[in-house]
Design a protein that fits this description.
Strand content of chain B: 5-15%
Cofactor (chain B): FAD
CATH topology of the largest domain in chain B: Butyryl-CoA Dehydrogenase, subunit A, domain 3
CATH superfamily of the largest domain in chain A: Butyryl-CoA Dehydrogenase, subunit A, domain 3
Oligomer: heterodimer
CATH architecture of the largest domain in chain B: Up-down Bundle
CATH superfamily of the largest domain in chain B: Butyryl-CoA Dehydrogenase, subunit A, domain 3
Number of strands of chain B: 10
Distance between the termini of chain A: 41 Å
Order of helices and strands of chain A: HHHHHEEEEEEEEHHHHHH
Strand order of the largest sheet of chain B: 1-4-5-8
Bound molecules: flavin-adenine dinucleotide
Structural class of chain B: alpha+beta
Largest sheet of chain A: 4 strands, mixed
Structural class of chain A: alpha+beta
Number of helices of chain B: 11
Number of domains of chain A: 3
Helix content of chain B: 40-55%
Radius of gyration of chain A: 22 Å
Family (chain B): Belongs to the acyl-CoA dehydrogenase family.
Protein name (chain B): Acyl-CoA dehydrogenase
Shape of chain B: globular
Number of strands of chain A: 8
Pfam families (chain B): Acyl-CoA_dh_1 (PF00441), Acyl-CoA_dh_M (PF02770), Acyl-CoA_dh_N (PF02771)
Order of helices and strands of chain B: HHHHHHEEEEEEEEHEEHHHH
CATH class of the largest domain in chain A: Mainly Alpha
Organism (chain B): Bradyrhizobium forestalis
CATH topology of the largest domain in chain A: Butyryl-CoA Dehydrogenase, subunit A, domain 3
Helix content of chain A: 40-55%
Shape of chain A: globular
CATH architecture of the largest domain in chain A: Up-down Bundle
Largest sheet of chain B: 4 strands, mixed
CATH class of the largest domain in chain B: Mainly Alpha
């Protein structure tokens, strides 16, 4: 980087910091503690608080719900270096993302690469502005890890496809406005070759959803049924029957996003949270030698993972990243997040076992703990991630 | 002593398994949870349990019980762990019965033990105060008042606290938190003035309560054991509870494991049974080894507890039992945690659903881990016992 570029970046940092200080409400400077605290956007979106609304609208107006997307699509048009500065500055003050969305994390990157102009113009600005909420129709009852064996059919009917079949584990399908969906358009072809990636409105005739209850007691996902849903062929992203390429590219982004969980703390260092319930000795050390060791080891791994995540982004920008590296990160980040919550449960002891009391915020901690168990399943299981590393990065025989 | 069940013990296991799996499969717990059952267990089933002699399993013959030992109690706990049946067996029949039998005077024993054996009295030990199990940190105060005492303080994770007819409360009559001297156990009527009971709905849908004592008056007769000297009695009683919970965790782990292996043999992906993937085969095999090692450690601990009684509580036998229990509870905690995590993971999305039973095992394992000290606590205890 030249001296003048460095100087520009430092100016950008100063301006960004000042803007964030002036515009991020204090309530938005700590991690969300429940799903209600997260703003997902969409046609029926409601803000859970005034600060949430203000923060979202200010960031949206600056294009910073999607800082590195082109300005023409409602993004911030930031360079990789600027985006990194923004992320660092937000992290420094603990600012939470103003908008969470499958559109931002998953569909957007896929559209930017594979979408045609009409699709990009139609969908990207609405994602950036939080107007449309998306869900992901990949998994089916018999196509989980073996996603490419999916059976949802799309039959050609003039300019349309008629879609029939069932998806499962569709997160927030009951709240989503649109779905990006994998369907089989050529049943005769080899399993990876007959799949198309298609977009449609969840209010279309023939779409229905049935929520599934999670072990956390919440119901964030659904069985999703398609009974003769009519979708114009123009809604296919990329080439018909080449949807697997789009699907895989999207998964890389999804996995990178999920791996970020490993770095995403809970607001305070675990050691301090543990000290609240376990106490400290005369020297100020956590009064549970074994737990102290576990937390310290976790902290080491968390800091190292954060460095690796930063490096992964930089390598990608430098064109030196292995395309399958997001699988390595997804594996480690999710396993680490599960460890974080095991430690939190251990630290909380009896208090962390209550499920319905006011005192426990309706069991916020045990419910969050149980939810983390899905991290190593959703977006591809840990076993599948390690399989990808063995095959695509290590090139092991037979993998 | 051989680390295998005797013929009588095997018969006991079979009859416990038959009864429990028939009358109280996991769906029984699910129903109690979903219907927000005010009692949290089935009274009717508890009566059949008592009729078969389980409620008084540890109660001596002379008080109407079966006079069996801790290995037998463990056999029943293991079966309870398989279906996660909520029942007063742990709090009443194992922990409270042992406390009364070991610490009670003749009058106390003859008043309470027959009722425990007949299933008509529910009792529980109130020990924990803070977030973690630290028995010596007990600070609930009992001050002398007239002929008796007044109790003030709070307890948490009192198993069956909202349905019990009798509390055995650990209190401090002298010394300060952290000291062995100055602990006393009291028998307290839950209906006594100044007792406030809050049932806490727990992650595992098993019974627990927080209890506050505000100047609760008790007579001198309600002291269980000796004033200021309860630490040893408490150690022994807690170790029995720990051995029993460890046995429950073995049953729980084994059941989760069995269900998971079945799933590996039935779920297909990539045109194969997922059990054909060596990555999963090895993990299942490792878990098997882990459970077998823990099973042996738990059996060893239960036998050591029986031996401690047989040897009239000689100091050597007590210390041996304590170490064996620390090993057992620490192992059971880590093994059960691993078993439920593998159970959920290997079931994929299915394992995350409430509709599927695996999650119930994960939740119960977490509570068992906290009950009477977690793996960290017992590992630390072992290190201390060995002098490092
Ligand atoms: C909370 C949550 C949210 C989700 N949200 C969505 C969503 O929005 N949209 C969507 O489409 N899907 C979603 N999913 C589905 C998720 O992607 C699948 O659950 C996942 O891909 C695993 O598939 P499965 O559940 O069928 O498990 P299976 O594939 O049946 O796997 C069962 C077990 O076998 C293992 N296994 C399978 N194949 C192999 C192998 N070759 N080698 C070794 N082990 C193997 C797996 O790792 C796992 O442990 C979600 C899942 C969860 C839990």
């Amino acid at each position: 980087m030249s001296d003048s570029e460095t100087a520009d970046l430092e100016t950008f940092r100063d301006e960004t910091r000042a803007w964030l200080e002036a515009n991020c409400p204090p309530e938005m400077r700590k991690p969300a503690t429940s799903d209600a605290d997260v703003f997902w956007g969409g046609r029926n979106a409601k803000f859970s608080s005034e600060p949430q609304r203000i923060w979202f609208e200010r960031m949206r107006d600056k294009g910073w719900t999607v800082p590195d997307w082109p300005k023409e699509y409602g993004g911030g048009g930031l360079s990789a270096a600027e985006h990194k500065v923004l992320r660092a500055e937000m992290a420094r003050m603990g600012a939470r993302p103003p908008l969470s969305s499958f559109g931002i994390w998953m569909l957007g990157p896929a559209l930017l690469k594979y979408g045609n102009d009409a699709q990009k113009n139609e969908h990207l600005p609405k994602i950036a502005a939080g107007e449309i909420r998306w869900c992901q129709g990949y998994s089916e009852p018999n196509a989980g890890s073996d996603l490419a064996s999916l059976q949802t059919r799309a039959e050609s009917d003039g300019d349309d496809f008629i879609i029939t079949g069932q998806k499962i584990w569709t997160s927030y399908a009951n709240y989503a406005d649109w779905i990006f969906c994998l369907v089989r358009t050529d049943p005769a072809a080899k399993k990876h070759d007959g799949i198309s990636f298609v977009l449609f409105d969840m209010t279309s005739k023939g779409v229905s959803t049935k929520p599934i209850l999670l072990i956390s007691g919440y119901s964030p996902f659904c069985e999703t049924f398609f009974d003769g849903v009519r979708v114009p062929k123009s809604h296919v992203v990329g080439t018909i029957n080449r949807g697997w390429d789009v699907a895989k590219y999207l998964l890389q982004h999804e996995r990178a996003m999920i791996s970020g969980m490993g770095e995403r703390g809970v607001g305070r260092p675990l050691g301090q949270i543990a000290a609240d319930s376990v106490g400290t000795d005369a020297q100020g050390r956590l009064d549970d030698v074994m737990l102290r060791g576990q937390i310290a080891r976790f902290d080491v791994d968390e800091a190292a993972l954060a460095a690796c995540a930063e490096r992964a982004v930089d390598l990608a920008k430098a064109g030196q990243a292995h395309p399958a590296f997001s699988s390595a990160m997804k594996y480690y980040g999710t396993e680490l997040n599960k460890r974080r919550y095991e430690i939190l449960m251990s630290a909380g002891g009896v208090d962390a076992l209550e499920w319905e009391s006011e005192r426990s915020k309706q069991g916020a901690r045990p419910r969050a703990w149980l939810r983390t168990k899905a991290n190593s399943i959703e977006g591809g299981t840990s076993e599948v991630m390690l399989g990808i590393v063995a095959k695509r990065i290590l090139d092991l025989p037979g993998a | 002593m051989a680390l295998v069940l005797t013929e009588e013990q095997s018969m006991l296991r079979d009859s416990a398994r038959g009864l429990i799996s028939d009358k109280a499969p996991v769906s029984h717990l699910r129903h109690l949870r979903d219907s927000k059952d005010p009692t949290g267990f089935s009274k009717e089933f508890w009566h059949s349990f008592a009729e078969m002699g389980f409620a008084g399993l540890l109660v001596p013959d002379e008080f109407g019980g079966s006079g069996l030992g801790y290995v037998e109690a463990g056999v029943v706990m293991e079966e309870i762990g398989r279906t996660l049946m909520p029942s007063p067996f742990l709090a009443t029949s194992v922990v409270a019965a042992s406390a009364l039998n070991r610490g009670g005077n003749a009058a106390q024993k003859s008043e309470y033990l027959p009722k425990i054996a007949s299933g008509s009295l529910l009792a529980t030990l109130a020990i924990d105060e803070g977030a973690k199990h630290r028995p010596l940190q007990t600070s609930l105060q009992a001050v002398r008042a007239g002929n008796g005492f007044k109790l003030s303080g709070a307890k948490a994770l009192v198993v069956d606290g909202h349905v019990a007819d009798l509390f055995i409360v650990a209190a401090r009559t002298a010394g300060s938190a952290g000291e062995r001297e100055g602990l006393t156990l009291f028998l307290v009527n839950p209906a006594a003035k100044g007792v406030a009971i809050e049932r806490t709905i727990m992650v595992d849908a098993h019974n627990a309560a927080r209890i506050e004592f505000a100047n609760v008056e008790v007579t001198a007769d309600s002291v269980l054991g000796e004033v200021d000297q309860a630490a040893s009695l408490l150690d022994g009683v807690l170790d029995i509870g720990r051995g029993a919970v460890a046995a429950e965790m073995v049953g729980l782990s084994d059941e989760v494991f069995g269900r998971t292996v079945e799933y590996l043999k039935s779920r297909k992906q990539f045109g194969k049974l997922i059990g054909e993937f060596q990555a999963l085969q090895h993990r299942a095999a490792e878990l098997y080894v882990d459970i077998e090692i823990t099973r042996a450690a738990v059996m060893k601990a239960l036998q050591a507890l029986d031996a401690d009684v047989a040897k009239a509580a000689s100091a050597v036998a007590v210390a041996k039992a304590a170490s064996a229990v620390a090993v057992a509870k620490a192992r059971a905690g880590t093994t059960a945690t691993r078993a439920v995590q593998e159970g959920v993971q290997m079931h994929g999305g299915m394992g995350m659903t409430d509709q599927f039973d695996i999650g119930f095992f994960m939740k119960r394992a977490r509570v068992c881990e906290e009950l009477f000290g977690d793996a960290n606590y017992h590992t630390e205890q072992l290190a201390r016992a060995r002098g490092y």
